[in-house]
Backbone:
């Protein structure tokens, strides 16, 4: 399966040192294809740079170390489903356009979406199901 993770999952694993989420990412890279969109990477760099610039290098090292498929976030957002937080629009559009099977996110706004694909799961839901 091709599985995209949202910024909050990436940051929780890397910066907040969540062992559970780090193991989740490791599992995905070993058993499936991890997909990261350009928006998630840039958003992660922006969040890290604003809070702790020294961790930007750690993010770069992490991205160089793991295996993932990079997809570019489209500029056309007209096909986006309606979502409360407009900052989430590029993530869901990237997931839809790149045709991933699953989007893993801790953001509750995604849970309210009614779309057929991708399947949207929290990290816990993914671990319980797969």
Residues:
């Amino acid at each position: 399966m091709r599985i995209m993770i949202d910024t909050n999952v990436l940051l929780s694993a890397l910066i907040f040192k969540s062992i559970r989420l780090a193991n989740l990412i490791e599992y995905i890279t070993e058993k499936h294809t991890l997909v990261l969109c350009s928006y998630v990477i840039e958003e992660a760099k922006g969040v890290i740079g604003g809070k702790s610039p020294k961790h930007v290098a750690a993010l770069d090292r992490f991205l160089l170390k793991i295996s993932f498929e990079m997809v570019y976030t489209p500029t056309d957002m007209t096909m986006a489903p309606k979502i409360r937080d407009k900052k989430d629009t590029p993530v869901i559009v990237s997931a839809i356009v790149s045709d991933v099977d699953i989007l893993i996110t801790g953001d509750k706004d995604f849970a309210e979406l009614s779309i057929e694909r991708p399947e949207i799961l929290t990290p816990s839901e993914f671990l319980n199901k797969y």
